[in-house]
Write a structure and sequence with these properties.
Elements lengths: L2 H9 L1 H14 L9 H4 L3 H14 L17 H4 L8 H16 L8 H24 L12 H8 L7
Helix pairs in contact: 2-6, 4-7, 6-7
Length: about 160
């Protein structure tokens, strides 16, 4: 990513954060962890991670991934139940990022730059969503950790 655009984005951090918070507050809340008052404290960390990822060079798409801009949606981020509180968080982050960045971009590099921004955000989102999904109580049985599956299958010992 061009250093000048990255600096412009960093200078627009406050409006980006405000727009993101507004979009997040308009989303339905799926759990107490997904309440905007809880999630807004992660925004500065997420933006720091995003700018760091962009500065280092965003992760490249593997051959298995589809072309085009990745969307921060549940199936693409690995959430099978759709209850992960970070889904709306990252979906609204992506939308705010596109809305704030679009006016800054010349038409000739618009698609490439938006793709790079989305890839970098998607890289962060996937890691964080998978962390929450690893402890999800609603995961389908075939995706449950083997130790938890064994505990569930073990007959309980009756106390006398």
């Amino acid at each position: 990513m061009q250093e000048t655009l990255l600096r412009e984005l960093q200078n627009l951090r406050a409006p980006l954060r405000r727009r993101w918070e507004g979009l997040l507050r308009a989303e339905p809340v799926t759990s107490p962890l997904g309440h905007p008052d809880s999630l807004i404290y992660l925004m500065d960390w997420t933006l720091d991670q995003l700018f760091l990822t962009l500065r280092k060079g965003s992760p490249r798409r593997t051959s298995r991934q589809r072309s085009g801009i990745p969307r921060c949606e549940q199936n693409q981020l690995g959430c099978l139940c759709g209850g992960n509180p970070l889904l709306a968080y990252f979906r609204t982050a992506e939308r705010a990022l596109i809305e704030i960045t679009l006016p800054l971009l010349p038409p000739t590099s618009r698609d490439l730059t938006l793709n790079e921004l989305s890839l970098a955000l998607h890289h962060i989102a996937k890691r964080e969503v998978e962390t929450i999904c690893a402890v999800c109580q609603r995961r389908p049985e075939e995706n449950v950790l083997p130790a938890r599956r064994l505990r569930a299958e073990r007959p309980s010992v009756a106390k006398s």
